[in-house]
């Protein structure tokens, strides 16, 4: 059976994004990201917002 790629220990849903924010973004870019996420979630109901903040599906 063929597979699309070989899985690696660092393959997960958060690793690349976390490395980008921690190791690539500067303080201004991190602040801009947070502002954008907050603005994007302003119309979301509270239970879904809580799940999203915890990284869970709504």
UniProtKB/TrEMBL annotation:
InterPro entries for this protein: Catalase_immune_responsive, Catalase_sf
A Pfam family annotated for this UniProt entry: Catalase-rel
GO molecular function, one term: heme binding
Superkingdom of origin: Bacteria
Domain Catalase immune-responsive: start-end pairs: 10-47
Signal peptide (residue range): none
Function: Decomposes hydrogen peroxide into water and oxygen; serves to protect cells from the toxic effects of hydrogen peroxide.
The protein, known as: Catalase immune-responsive domain-containing protein
